[in-house]
Predict the structure.
Amino acid sequence: MLKALAVMTSGGDSPGMNAAVRAVVRRALDYGIQVYGIRFGYEGLVTGGDQIVPLQWKDVGGILQKGGTFLGTARSDRFRTPEGRRQATLHLLEREIEALVVIGGDGSLSGAHLLAREWSEHVEGLGRSSPAGEVHPLQVIGLPGSIDNDLHGTDMSIGADTALNHIVRAMDDLSSTAASHQRTFVLETMGRHCGYLALTAALAGGASWVLVPEEELELRWHQKMVAALDHAREIGRTHQMVVVAEGARHPDGLFINSNEIRKLLVDRLGIDVRVTVLGHVQRGGSPTAFDRVLATRLGVAAVDTLMQGPEGVHCHMVGLVRNTVVKTPLSEVVEKSRAVGMEIENGDYARALSLRGGSFRNALDLVKTLTRISPAQETRDDGIVVILTAGADAPGMNTAVSVAARCLLNEGIRTYASPDGFLGLIRGNLQPLDWHQLVGWVNRPGSEIGTARYEFREGDLERIAGTVETNRVRAIVAIGGWGTYRRAAQLAESQDRLPALRIPVVLIPATIDNNLPCTEYSIGTDTALNNIVEAVDKIRHTAGASRRAFLVEVMGRRSGFLALMGALASGAEKAYLPELGIRLSELNQDLEHLRTSFRQGKRLVILLRNEHSSARYTTDFIRSLFEEESEGAFQVRTAILGHIQRGGIPTAFDRILASRMGAGAAGSILESLERGSARCTVVGLSGRGIREFPLEEALEQMEMGEGRPKRQWYMDLVEMAQALAKYGPSRSSSS
Ligand code: ADP
């Protein structure tokens, strides 16, 4: 049984590191393990003394939403020497620390790996082995903390999502000023050898050109870029944006400088060009909901791995691969993470690109399609594909429409919108979608083509069949939630009766509620989650010195996703979920908890309640109950977040998800048309990839009476949320 562990943050800081430390500390205390925090990374470990401090439950309260790292981080030259590492060993031995959790980038993880490898040598050198010559090993767990997202063994590193959102928001802001002044911007992103940030920002922000380190540029790449930008200006695009990763290189291997691009464009085109180097802004600020949840999951997994892992000494990194926690030997992480940089250094770009994996390659291809000035293929006159958005709007719908339509137009397929969901099809009112018009849609809120909630009435299916026939509609892409799935099923069921409806239909899941089968996330969910988390952060700020319990009601229909993830990401003490319902005995327990903790000095407690977690124990009922029974220990306030949750500009995650699903839907349609198939399918995010499922499978996976899928992956996180949010550890004596 592990008695003591130490946790540190090291190297470049990244948003979410605090959330990871909080999770490690609380999970470990819960197991009864003593926890030390090491200040300023390896420098603190080498220094020892007051740089290694015991941490209690409350020490990591209130840090979840903060950027940076409260432990401090540093680069340490002393730790790079064997003497430094020997000192570090001594300081761990003195405190009987048997495990070290390091949150950082590839440098920090290399350091951890080295220390683990040399451990017994240092222990013996210090004369600390047992009389029999035995050495208690050091267990090491690394967590990926880096905005660059350049680590092998995890799909996302802690901080990358926040950095990406900073870049994408900057692109949105620059677009408006660029359009006003007819200016071109060159935007430089961080990322070292990794083009992830630049590439995904180019996709999510609608860039005109992107330069990443992993791609070998042609000798005359600048001529192509200049010609493309010139052409775009000629056809009336008011502004353009070139995104350059800091590690992008010329064909000769020299780094590309943003000012060089500016000069090139000014000289060749005589246009107004400005350079924006985002720099450290990308690292700063409060972490996004995604980063908070990722960091929390990985922090908990680090301790669980140490506790539950098979016999033997751990020297691993824990990461999230296909939405599952996976541990990878540190040696492999270090070696493979470095490999891409080395291939680039050696000029083997093809290998560098293949090491990044299939989804990186696909994203690069997609950006290249979307940045085209005009479609690759001549438009054919063999019918049309119709795209529609139906049901309640969800942030990211426009991105999905824009990308799906452009992928189809690029193949020469005429693409039309059905305004206001299925109503356009019913009324025979279809509007052509134009390549140039679609370019600016990636970041727009709501739905440009209009959306409507609508149940088919008598004669509607016949009317749709009529429209399909008259307009030679060859396929439909429908973007929406469960109502849209049901409408699509009705269309499919009518195929025998109405042969015109024997056409392929592809559904793209878009709803903030994340209550759909066959996908882990639906479009709009991430934006809604961030809206909730920002609102709860603000509520925390208003609390001041009062003793208050806030009951915050969130959406989600019959899915507890938003309430649960909102609680995990905002550090709320409780989430009431429709999957679990609410019992009176539970409310009694919660009340008891509230009374005790407020009496012990707690100032604020946040409870999240999903709108449908109980039909009778409503938000208002719980407020009255708690207030009546508070015995003067606290007050209760409610906040019903309502439509604020669905509003706003889509987050980077939603735009990327929508782009990938839009491209996936277009690919599916093209395939069906080629095969002459009239299948009805759903695209979904399953693990890391976009996959396609038959609509029947989606219908089967739905728990009809409950209005949510039979299996929801996020319910696996309930235990973790409960363990981290309560007021103190369950087994240790400290509180
Ligand atoms: P990051 O972890 O963000 O990649 P660095 O590369 O600067 O940041 O590494 C952070 C610290 O980790 C370094 O200052 C050093 O103390 C330690 N470190 C990095 N690489 C090694 C190594 N090969 N051997 C020993 N320590 C290392």
About this structure: DSSP finds 24 helices and 24 strands in the chain.
